[in-house]
Design goal:
The chain contains 15 helices and 13 strands. By secondary structure, it is an alpha/beta fold. It has 2 domains: 193 residues, 3-Layer(aba) Sandwich (Rossmann fold), CATH 3.40.50.2000; 157 residues, Glycogen Phosphorylase B (Rossmann fold), CATH 3.40.50.2000. The strands form 2 sheets. A 7-stranded parallel β-sheet has the order 3-2-1-4-5-6-7, with helices on both faces. A 6-stranded parallel β-sheet has the order 10-9-8-11-12-13, with helices on both faces. The protein is globular, with a radius of gyration of 21 Å.
């Protein structure tokens, strides 16, 4: 019997970990899985726990208002260590490149507990972009034991860094599992913020921007681009922007965009309405990592508001385009997708390189192999 502790704390982690926790529960005779949430993003995490019926065994509730990276790191490292001493799992399972995942990997390493990293091997090669995620994932992969790479390119990144190929499984990305399952559900917008949005007859551009490296001047440049395109296409285009709760995002976004008639600023959306908004969108404009994978699965072109991406497969496939954070470049990218039908069709119909919706099954299959190997090993005298 292999004991696994799954640890996560943010909205993207919950979305991507939920299919794995569900799949682990299908093998109670071989695997025991407990769930620990840190609460790094409290308000944005709780709706995901309800949607995916995730009942945490441990809830650390570490979030503070306008919290610092130092606080998150220290709180997770200390509190997860307490759980590891009490729970003594065989494996700690973490996802992605958040500060929760990085600090959890250090705690597990210090306690000599094996680590499985979902979405391992992503790299931009620039420690400042994205910040702090690029360094977070490198730290995680230095301490890791099992690597679940979403793509062949991610696997190659790990092998180049000296990871033994036998410790890497190419699985696809679990976000596609969660997305496809959610997209197939019925959704009634009644009673949600979407019910009041006058979207009929207009091309919808769905926007998200919240990364730390875009705070300040880059975010203001993004907002200026939205203002310009919204003004030029006021009759037939509208924007929906679910605004992150961080005050560094809320301040400039509301001051620059709240007065525009065809730009709708909403609170952060729960995952199910957000997925159905993606299905309705003409294209996506984002600095998110996950949307670079989700958009192509729904046939939506994605413009990325970043200088680099750790997901180059989408750029190579033609589903994603990097437009950076300069106002003129963002405007050009959006206008081309609004005006050039050929370019739009090429991006919308390119093959999604991020998986087929069965990543969780592959991850759990690899953990079952670990369980068999552990059972075969002779016990210490």
């Amino acid at each position: 019997m292999l004991k696994i502790l799954a640890v996560f704390g943010t909205r993207p982690e919950a979305i991507k970990m939920a299919p794995v926790v569900r799949e682990l529960a299908r093998h109670p005779e071989r695997l025991v899985c407990r769930v620990c949430v840190t609460g790094q993003h409290r308000q944005m995490l709780d709706p995901l726990l309800r949607l995916f019926a995730l009942a945490p065994d441990y809830d650390l509730q570490i979030m503070l208002q306008n919290q610092s990276l130092e606080h998150v790191t220290c709180a997770v490292l200390s509190r997860v260590s307490e759980i590891l001493r009490a729970d003594t799992p065989d494996y700690v399972l973490i996802q992605g490149d958040t500060t929760t995942s990085m600090a959890t990997s250090l705690a597990a390493f210090y306690h000599k507990i094996r680590i499985g990293h979902i979405e391992a091997g992503l790299r931009t090669g620039n420690t400042r972009h994205p910040f702090p995620e690029e360094v977070n994932r490198r730290i995680i992969d230095c301490a890791c034991d099992l690597y679940f790479a979403p793509t062949e390119q991610a696997r190659q990144n790990l092998v180049r860094e000296g990871v033994g190929d036998e410790r890497v499984a190419v699985t696809g990305n679990t976000v596609i599992d969660a997305l496809l399952q959610t997209a197939q559900t019925d959704f009634d917008p009644t009673g949600t913020v979407l019910a009041d949005l006058p979207l009929d007859g207009k091309r919808l551009i769905l926007l998200t921007a919240h990364r730390r490296e875009n705070f300040g001047t880059p975010l203001r440049s993004i907002c200026q681009a939205i203002k310009e395109v919204a003004a030029c296409y006021a009759r037939d285009v509208c924007f929906v922007y679910p605004v992150h709760l961080n005050p560094n995002v809320q301040g400039p976004v509301y001051s620059m965009l709240s007065h525009l008639d065809n730009v709708f600023l909403t609170p952060p959306l729960e995952y199910q309405p957000f997925v159905h908004l993606m299905k309705r969108a003409h294209f996506l404009v984002t600095d998110s990592g996950g949307l670079q994978e989700e958009g192509p699965s729904l046939g939506k072109p994605v413009l990325v508001l970043r200088q680099t991406t750790e997901r180059p497969e989408g750029v190579a496939a033609g589903t994603v385009e990097l437009v950076g954070t300069e106002t003129a470049d963002i405007v050009m990218g959006m206008v081309q997708l609004l005006e050039d039908d050929g370019k739009y069709r090429r991006m919308a119909t390119a093959v999604n390189p991020y998986g087929d919706g069965h990543a969780a099954t592959r991850i759990v299959h690899r953990l079952l192999e670990e369980s068999e190997r552990t059972e075969r090993e002779p016990s210490c005298p």
